[in-house]
């Protein structure tokens, strides 16, 4: 029987891994199934644009996987049972179980506002397309002089504030920053960010903590009360608890602990990539949740899975975080590289050049997802006899 590879999630990491495995492994020995809740690929890097009413072209996963032999299962993952090696899914037909021999866990992350009273009821986030669309609907309903409050000064918060302020100059946009705005950027990049926010009219409250969210206002720990026709939460992300509930070894925030090859340290038939993986980079620091980390962890998982299934040496690939590419609206941005310790280098690139770099990265990521087998060797590797036989598990 064929060796069954099941990939959970078709975001930047999952789609990349699935396409590459399909290209490099012989279909005579393997079958690859991708489980994803939506029929198209979600450009998470552009969800702040979607929230402001910009149109994003939808890449259908069925089109991306056409001709690869990948089976696409449109369903939501509800549980993983590593003891039986099955995944439980739910769909319009009631769902069922999928058996696997190798599992690639790429379910990503979502917004986490559970620690802030009122945020779940009244705040919007842009960690998924449905939530970004809800924010867009809310922004469209606001007339002139509406108030938007963004909680969180990470990259997502910065990009969202700039995008809303540029696309809706009639709105008043306030960003709540727990510390100094752009604290992890170089001095020059921080100054550039402040100038851009001044130009766009973004008000920044530094060293401020949101204490609770209400229907039309945000209450801060220092007693400040901010009018808010729309509150956007960008201050935290979390992974789905499915891995922890399955008994996989995870961190305190639920990320799967993996070895240098992206293999679960507790369940060797499971690999984790992207935001769901807790992977230590070559500099000894954990890789952050990011699109770049999705590519690095995915590349290592591909090499490891193919190596182990075909009896080849599993070689390490680079696991490094090079820096941040920040969009500040459509015509401005910041490219900030970091050193081996993750500290911002003194030099940065800003303005239209940085905006073009970020736009190019986004287009390249989408193109690579749409063409998962481009440039790869045509020769497909055969699975060795020791891995060829599948275990007799339930499948749907």
Automatic annotation (TrEMBL):
GO biological process: aerobic electron transport chain
InterPro entries according to UniProt: FAD/NAD-bd_sf (IPR036188), FAD/NAD-binding_dom (IPR023753), NADH-Q_oxidoreductase (IPR051169)
Membrane-spanning segments: none
Cofactors named for this entry: FAD
Listed Gene3D superfamilies: 3.50.50.100
Superkingdom in the source lineage: Bacteria
Molecular-function GO terms, alphabetical: NAD(P)H dehydrogenase (quinone) activity
Location of the FAD/NAD(P)-binding domain: 4-296
Pfam families attached to this UniProt entry: Pyr_redox_2 (PF07992)
Keywords: FAD, Flavoprotein, Oxidoreductase
The family this protein is said to belong to: Belongs to the NADH dehydrogenase family.
Protein name: NADH dehydrogenase FAD-containing subunit
Source organism of this protein record: Kribbella shirazensis
């Amino acid at each position: 029987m064929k060796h069954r590879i099941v990939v959970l999630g078709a975001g930047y990491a999952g789609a990349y891994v699935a396409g590459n495995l399909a290209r490099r492994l012989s279909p005579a020995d393997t079958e690859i199934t991708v489980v994803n809740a939506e029929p198209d690929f979600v450009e998470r890097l552009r969800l702040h644009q979607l929230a402001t009413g910009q149109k994003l072209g939808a890449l259908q996963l069925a089109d991306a996987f056409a001709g690869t032999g990948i089976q696409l299962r449109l369903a939501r993952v509800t549980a993983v049972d590593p003891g039986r090696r099955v995944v439980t899914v739910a769909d319009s037909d009631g769902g069922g179980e999928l058996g696997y021999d190798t599992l690639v866990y790429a379910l990503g992350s979502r917004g986490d506002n559970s620690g802030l009273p009122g945020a779940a009821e009244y705040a919007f986030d842009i960690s998924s397309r449905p939530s970004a669309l809800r924010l867009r609907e809310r922004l469209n309903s606001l007339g002139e002089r509406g108030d938007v409050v963004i909680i969180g000064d990470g990259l997502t918060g910065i990009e969202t504030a700039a995008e809303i302020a540029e696309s809706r100059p009639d709105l008043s946009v306030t960003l709540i920053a727990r510390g100094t705005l752009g604290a992890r950027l170089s001095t020059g990049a921080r100054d550039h960010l402040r100038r851009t926010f001044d130009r766009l009219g973004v008000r920044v409250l530094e060293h401020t903590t949101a204490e609770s969210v209400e229907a039309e206002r945000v209450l801060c720990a220092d007693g400040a009360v901010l009018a808010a026709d729309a509150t956007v939460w960008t201050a935290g992300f979390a992974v789905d608890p499915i891995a922890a509930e399955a008994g996989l070894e995870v961190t305190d925030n639920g990320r799967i602990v993996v070895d240098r090859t992206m293999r679960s340290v507790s369940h060797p038939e499971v690999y984790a990539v992207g935001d769901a993986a807790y992977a230590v980079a070559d500099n000894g620091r954990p890789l952050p949740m990011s699109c770049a980390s999705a590519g690095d962890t995915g590349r290592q998982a591909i090499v490891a899975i193919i190596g182990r299934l075909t009896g080849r040496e599993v070689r390490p690939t680079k696991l490094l975080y090079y820096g941040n590419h920040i969009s500040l609206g459509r015509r401005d941005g910041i490219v900030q590289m970091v050193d081996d310790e993750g500290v911002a280098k003194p030099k940065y690139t800003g303005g239209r050049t940085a905006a073009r770099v970020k736009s190019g990265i986004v287009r390249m990521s989408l193109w690579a997802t749409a063409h998962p087998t481009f440039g790869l060797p045509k020769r497909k590797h055969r699975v060795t006899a020791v891995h060829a036989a599948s275990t007799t598990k339930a499948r749907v």
